[in-house]
């Protein structure tokens, strides 16, 4: 996904002021000083983002009114705001040649607004420089086994040690029906095997909270790589399983 947009100072100030006035509880970046006319070339890959499974790479080139690359930022980051949230979260970019880049992995599905904030020499803080016009969409992690499609997510998505989280699996047909939907698979009795980073394991029975949705709560005690393996009976009557990787962060 790629876009090219030219911002003029007069438009930028009013856009930033209006945007910040409408947000509550988010980063209070000041309005941008006069940088002259800057062009932002922003892209991210891959265009189709799966939480927990896709490393998303941001790329940003900043050009001045002569078309020359601007590379003197003390800090430049891509900030994201999830739909329904009031908190912007930033990912710092590093300079590679004349392009600023960073890699991030999303842990919660949904739609995200994106913007670019930066700090140049002589400035005291990050300022919002550019609002990306198109949102980023992140979808649940998924796999297939036993003739079914399995989607996975935890709530909350970003887990810390000590958190009480819920592991959620959706089991559905692999093929879409004429309405474009994948019918849910009800009536299964799946279990989830959780392997924490220290080798601790726990098996939990998943409860069907709605058609084809199966949940299990768990409190996490170890930071690091964690695996969730769901076991169920496939469409052929044989045992099936799908494993998803997650990461548990240290408590703040």
Distance between the termini: 34 Å
Tell me what portion of residues adopts beta-strand conformation.
Answer: over 45%
Order of helices and strands: EHEEEEEEEEEEEEEEEEEEEE
Q: Which segments are poorly predicted (pLDDT under 50) over 5 or more consecutive residues?
A: 2-34
Shape: elongated
Largest sheet descriptor: 6 strands, mixed
| Estimated structural class | mainly beta
Helix proportion range: under 10%
Q: Could you tell me the mean pLDDT?
A: 89
Total beta-strand segments: 21
Number of helices: 1
Integer-rounded radius of gyration: 22 Å
Helices and strands, with pairings:
Layout: E1 2-7, H1 9-22, E2 38-45, E3 49-50, E4 55-63, E5 75-82, E6 89-92, E7 94-96, E8 99-105, E9 110-119, E10 127-131, E11 136-139, E12 141-145, E13 148-155, E14 159-160, E15 164-173, E16 191-195, E17 201-205, E18 207-210, E19 213-219, E20 224-233, E21 239-249
Parallel strand pairs: 3-11, 14-21
Antiparallel strand pairs: 1-2, 2-4, 4-8, 5-6, 5-9, 7-8, 9-10, 9-11, 12-13, 13-15, 15-19, 16-17, 16-20, 18-19, 20-21
Structural features:
single chain, 252 residues, mainly beta, 6-stranded mixed beta sheet, 5-stranded antiparallel beta sheet, elongated, disordered N terminus
Describe this structure as you would to a colleague.
By secondary structure, the chain is mainly β. It is built from 1 helix and 21 strands. The longest helix has 14 residues, at 9-22. Strands 3, 5, 6, 9, 10 and 11 form a 6-stranded mixed sheet that branches. It has a 5-stranded antiparallel sheet with strand order 1-2-4-8-7. It has one helix at 9-22; strands at 2-7, 38-45, 49-50, 55-63, 75-82, 89-92, 94-96, 99-105, 110-119, 127-131, 136-139, 141-145, 148-155, 159-160, 164-173, 191-195, 201-205, 207-210, 213-219, 224-233, 239-249. It is elongated, with a radius of gyration of 22 Å.
